[in-house]
Amino acid sequence: LIAEPIARLGARLTAIDASEANIKTARVHAGEVGLDIDYRVGSVEALIAAGEA
Questions:
Q1: How far apart are CA 31 and CA 53, in angstroms?
Q2: Which of 35, 39, 41, 42 is at a distance of 20 to 30 A from 51, taking alpha carbons?
Q3: How far apart are CA 48 and CA 6, in angstroms?
């Protein structure tokens, strides 16, 4: 949920967590408050390896 204050400032961001349950909860909460955050299950290392970081 730390991504939400950043999104409220107008930033586009990708938020990651290794826990699928945490991502599911974060997606639901962001949707309830109208925030568009790209939540993904994974690690920063995986994003770097995929060329997405």
A1: 24
A2: 35
A3: 21
- Residues 29-49 pLDDT 10s: 999 999 999 999 999 899 899
Q: Tell me how many domains the chain contains.
A: 1
What tokens appear for 4 in the block? 């939400």
Structural domain for 20, as ranges: 3-49
In order, the DSSP letters of 10-53 are T---EEEES-HHHHHHHHHHHHHTT---EEEES-HHHHHHTT--
The token pair that represents 24 in the structure block:
């599911």
The pair of structure tokens assigned to 14 is 């990708």
Q: What is the pTM of this model?
A: 0.80
